[in-house]
Amino acid sequence: MECSKPRLSGRMATALTALVLAATMALGAVPAFALNDGGLTDDGTASITVHKYKTPAASSEPGTGSTADAGNVPTGAEPMSGVDFTLYKLDSAKVEGSVAGTAAASAAPSADGVAAFLALYKSASSTPVVKTTGADGTAVFGSLSFGYYLLVETNAGGANVETSVPSIITLPYAQQASGGSTTYLKDVHVYPKNVSKEEVEKTVIDEPDLVKPGDTLSYQIAFMIPEASKIFTDPANCLKGTIVDTLPKNAAGQPTITIKNDYSVVALAQDGTENVLTPGDIGFSDTSATNGQATWTITPAIAQAINVINVANTATPAKQIGKILIRVNATVNDNAFNAGVDANGLPIIQNTATVTVIDALGTTTIDAKASTTVAIPLIGFQLLKVDAEGNAILSDTATFKLATSYDNAVAGTFLKNATATADLQATTNLADGKAVFSGLSFDNLTSGGTAYTAIEQAVTAARANLGTVQNVELWMCETKAPNGYRILQAPQKVTLQIVKATADAKVTTTVVGGPLSLVNARDGQEGGGNFALPNTGGTGALIFGIVGAVLIGAAVTYFVRSRRRDQHDQS
In this protein, which residues make up the domain named Gram-positive pilin subunit D1 N-terminal (predicted)? Predict the structure, then answer.
């Protein structure tokens, strides 16, 4: 005989349910979620590493908490240094909704809502911690215990960007892989990104620590465009504009990089979605051989393509286009041997893009605004040509060549680029009396027909031994002196100091005893070995005139006296 199960009457069941709910309310709301340590030990050694970037638009890629997120950093993003982040530990019970009268936190607050959020959820026993990102854009919060944390960007470091939104970070962080398996991260990496508010920007993609002739530089020109209603009415009334990329030149006025014809054009939505456009639809003109410029022109075809995207996303404004990106590849060429320098006199490659944008109504929204670009270093040095008083010689140019040894310098065997027949040569600029040897970082230098690799080896050693200075000796000869000055007779030793301070730093070059100033004595100055000629029409000619007049006067006087003496004798 089967035992019968007791049954609750409907009235009793209702009463019991009410009792359970009442008890639950007395203890607090049912937790919305809870921490899971994933089998990890909470020993106070967890960490949160912040990787800070500036991007053209918001990223549409969610973070995973791992270093693999670096692959999801938008193209053209650049690290931001000097950005302050404050980390607050939260009350886990309140965040999970386990405390009576406090609802579970459903999401991180907005920037304006941080104060109210912390008043409700901040752990009373914790102290906020502030960290500032370094040159590589990272900041590390270490020695953390498990729990919930609120990460807030409290200072953008003066950059013209929209502050990143606050975020709640869980330690450990549950990372679900494909197939349903879950791993827990004790050390979590986060990638908060600031959207740039700059009208025009030019950034280097995968910025190198050093460049040399033959290398490819990839960079991105980004600029804002007007709102959707002002992009395209018809081919005669549509978005217009020009993007002029002014290439860097050496002292001889030759471009040091060459634009490749494989550029791409992207229409960037407000939410970070990239829409690839047809490159042939944008006008392109490369006149760098004559004026050092490459120019893109916004055509009706490009304006219409953008308008099609905007119209298709009328109901979702975040998908409408806010910026245009032009991604360019350029080859560093042999002319980089005499490129520009930064404020410290270090050789660099740096150029700007100037953008003009006019909307469909004919209003200029960006008026020939120039971008700034990250400077990419080259191996080399700058020198100044001065007279005996230390003044820069600006009346004429001087030229210099480099040798690998004193003997080679005396013999006239100088460094060459293997792709050229002429010696590497630097010429002083009439504007400031300075000359630059750069581009010495390439590995195809030759000396006397033999490969010269000492500089390339020093760079390799500097990258392998961070912070350790590598020395390379070169000998410099003056092969032409400024007009009116004596040429330097002896080769001048130049010791390059090559170093890479940290893994994220660039390779830099300094000169022992630098900055270099080379003195030319004027023809006829002491030690010159000959006498100075008088200046034509100046006091020198006047001196000869006076001396001549005195001599003539003396001769006349002598002649008159002689005649009188002769006459007296005859009497």
Answer: 44-195
